[in-house]
Amino acid sequence: MATSLNRKSSKTRSTVRRFRVSRFVFASIVALLVFAAVSPEPSAAMAGGVPSGSTVNAAPAAPSANANTPASAISAPASAGKPDTPATSAKSETPTAPAAHKDTCLDCHSILPEPLGVTAEKFAEDIHSQKGLTCAGCHGGDPTTDDADKAMNRKAGWKGKIERKQIPQLCGSCHDNPAYMRQYNPSLRTDQLAQYHTSIHGKRLAGGDTKVAVCIDCHSVHDIKPPSDPRATVNPVNVAKTCSRCHADAATMKPYGIPTDQFANYSKSVHHDAITKRGDLSAPTCTTCHGNHGAAPPGVDKVQNVCSTCHVFQAQMYEKSSHKDAFNKANLPGCVVCHSNHAITHPTDAKLAAGPEAVCMTCHTKGDRCDQARETLLAGITRLDDAIKRADQELALAEASGMEVSQPRLAQSQASDALTKARVTIHSFKKELVDADIQEGLKVAQANLMAGQKAMAERNYRRVGLGISLLAIALMVAGLWAYIKEIESEEPQEVMVKGAGD
Amino acid sequence: MTVLAQVRSWLDERLEWDDLIAPLRKKTVPRHKLSYWYFLGGMTLFLFGVQVLTGILLLLYYRPGANEAFESVQYLVTQVQFGWLLRSIHSWSANLMIFTAFAHMFSVLFLKAYRKPRELTWVSGVVLLFLVMGFGFSGYLLPWNTLAYFATKVGTEITGQVPVVGRPLMIFLRGGEDVTGATLTRFFGFHVAVLPGIATLLIAIHILLVQRLGMSVPPRVESEWTVNPSARREMKFFPNFALRELMAWYVALGILGALAAIFPWNLGVKADPFAPAPAGIKPEWYFLFMFQTLKLIPSKIWIIDGEVLGVIGFGVVALLWVLLPFFESQETSRPKKWITGAAIFALAYMMGMSIYGHLAQ
Questions:
Q1: How far is CA A242 from CA A168, A247, A263, A408, in A?
Q2: Is residue A129 part of a domain?
């Protein structure tokens, strides 16, 4: 009875399990179908980098025709990723992985002279090439045939040299497509084209000026490297030089009537030093303040916002200062008034003084209320700076004398921090705020100075002690010598001679 | 009867004191133009005494362990009254002791004092010199500062190059694969217990042999005295020589005090095992000639690793050095010249390599 029941329940369990499995499979298929139906974007899985659902690119028109739609975006990479003709690939609904395929373009173009020549080595350096895209990805055509007429047939989608005004749209056909880009680099932004349209470059291009920068002017072409590559023209180290190719060229800039000294000025700046000498890639270059794809000069009233992305505390202090309203009213560009824009040098206390580097007196009158306030602030900063230097000197002297002063040495950094803080607080131009930082620093510096002086007093005490000890030792040695001489003079001479004393 | 005489009489009744010190009363020391070299051994002994005394006092404050060692030494030199002097004297005295031990060894070598019947005095002395270097190596790590940490790392790595036993020996010294807190406690044990025990025993044997066999007379002086017996001069060990030795000790004390007060031994920065090794790390001066030699040996000589060959070479030389008296001629009047040549070469090599190592980047 029990055995029969067990067998029955075992059969039931098996039926239930089968039902659960088939229900799960059914539910999965339904879910996939629903997802495919409602998804507004092509599936992430694409053939050779081709967004799926690419039925539209049967006739691979220039991306500019309807470049903002994902469908048109597909036309270029479709042919790149698959060896089929664009027409064939367009019909393909089943995405497949990029396959090794014949690419005859380089057979000729690698031996052609510039501007038609692109060597295989050069193209191998290109990030697109490394990701499996081929010439046809941008230029269209059929790279699988050895017949040049068939390969470069405009009717079959070959585009030839891309016109400058079409370049942003062509690049954007992929880079503007999040679903497409996700498969290569999910964290890569896809708003470059939209930003470009808002930039001065983009606006002018739309207005018909083809001399302005388009994608390839900054990113180069056929050997495009990711910005993280130190060799890339858009790597933070190289950005300024890339921009300067046009912006430092007087002939190119002449029609626009804008200055060409930005790069020369930037090269002298503290930001340039940080990025090139200290290797600090977070230091600002052209694109940090002007934007990259949406490049435009920041408005006069927005300068403070740009600088404050890094100089947060200075901006907070500036918010509290009376200069903010005054500059706004006079339509003066905030931070730039005192620090300039491209040629920002390391700020020194001399900026607050009355010498040639002074900036206050360019607006203020000598002896006025603000000038007096300036003098008070400068005196406070100078006092703390001097106190730190004095303590440093004393501690260095004590250390050179072998005294253990590592703790006050370490504490000196607190005084230096207070000085840095005071120099930041200066941007508020409020005496009480700056004084608080200065007093804090003075307290620490004074304590460290005293520690150094104490160490030197201890050193002197040791030396006096040593002098007395050495004198006592010298007396003892002299006494012993005198005693030895005395006892030896009393000894009979024969003791000194071997045998005589035995 | 004075108090001193009463004490002496009291001791004599119980210990037969007069008989005990009778050999010292009789003992004489040769007196010639090179007699001052005799003071070096005593001076080394004096510095060893200073080490024992200051070492015991340092033990009152020192705490072995990676988290405490540096702080305890820092506390000693900054907070404890005369703590700085204690540590400084211990460090300077260690260096001076190694210097006087080397000087003593070379003086014995050049004055041919190792000859029969003093072979065992030489052997015990050379082993003592190795022990003193072991004291230096183990003691250097104890403050647990950056330089000490990396010097120990390099030093124990070289030990690991010894064929067959090298790696087990390195792991034994380090107390594991790396230089850690375990190495520190281990080195502390060697420094304050193992080495002092062996050294005290060897010093006792060494001094006993010196007292038993007396001071050696250099061969040239000996032959002069043989030709002209009336030129032979001696002085009583006690008090004449002992008082002179005492003068030398006072001079050593003065030099030690001056060095400790004018150049207090630097504490450095606490060791950080995760920090990169400082550039141009070098061992203490007494290991520098070996370190520089190993640096100069090519990485491969034929099929043998250069460093391994260097370590084996130093091992062989050390062994031959210990056994040196046994290569010497039995005839006092005809000492072997090559030994003097080897001694001059060894001294020049050690000095040259040390200077080169000091100046090299």
A1: 18, 9, 10, 48
A2: yes
Identify which of A477, A484, A487 has the shortest CB distance to residue B251.
A477
Nearest to A463 among B28, B251, B261 (CB): B261
Question: Hey, are the CB atoms on B243 and A480 less than 8 Å from each other?
Answer: yes
Say if A214 falls within a structural domain.
Answer: no
Cβ(A73)–Cβ(A80) under 8 Å?
no
User: Do A477 and B250 make contact, defined as CB atoms within 8 angstroms?
Assistant: yes
* CATH class label, B28-212+234-281: mainly alpha
Domains in chain A, number? 3
Phi/psi of residue A58, nearest 5 degrees: -55, -40
- Which of chain B's residues have a Cβ under 8 Å away from the Cβ of A469? 254, 257
Same domain, A166 and A66: yes
The helix/strand/coil state of A42 is: coil
Distance from CA of B128 to the nearest CA of A (A): 29
Residue ranges per domain, chain B? 28-212+234-281
Answer yes or no: is A253 within a domain: no
Q: B70, B224, B243: which to substitute to probe chain A, counting the most A Cβ within 10 Å?
A: B243
CB B233 to CB A476 under 8 A? no
| Confidence tier at A493 by pLDDT (50, 70, 90) | low
* Chain A residues inside the 8 Å CB shell of B146: none
Which two tokens mark A313?
């505390």
As a three-state string, the secondary structure of A330-350 is CCCCCHHHHHCCCCCCCCCHH
Distance between CA atoms of residues A185 and A13, nearest Å: 46
Per the rule left: phi > 0, alpha: psi between -120 and 50, beta: everything else, B300 is: beta
Residue A305 to residue B226: CA distance in whole angstroms: 102
A294 is a domain residue = no
- DSSP for B132-169? HHHHHHHHHHTT-BHHHHHHHHHHHHHHTTSTTTHHHH
Contact: B258, A466; criterion CB under 8 Å: yes
What sign for the dihedral angle of Cα A55, A61, A63, A68? negative
Contact (CB, 8 A) for A208 and A163: no
Query: Across chain A, what does the average pLDDT equal?
Result: 79
pLDDT at position B189 is: 96
- B83: nearest CA in chain A? A404
| Domain limits for position A183 | 43-190
Radius of gyration of chain B (CA): 23
Residue B106 to residue A501: CA distance in whole angstroms? 32
Q: What is the pLDDT of residue A105?
A: 87
Chain A positions touching B247 (Cβ under 8 A) are 477, 480-481, 484
Q: What is the ipTM of this complex?
A: 0.83
Write down the pTM of the prediction.
0.64
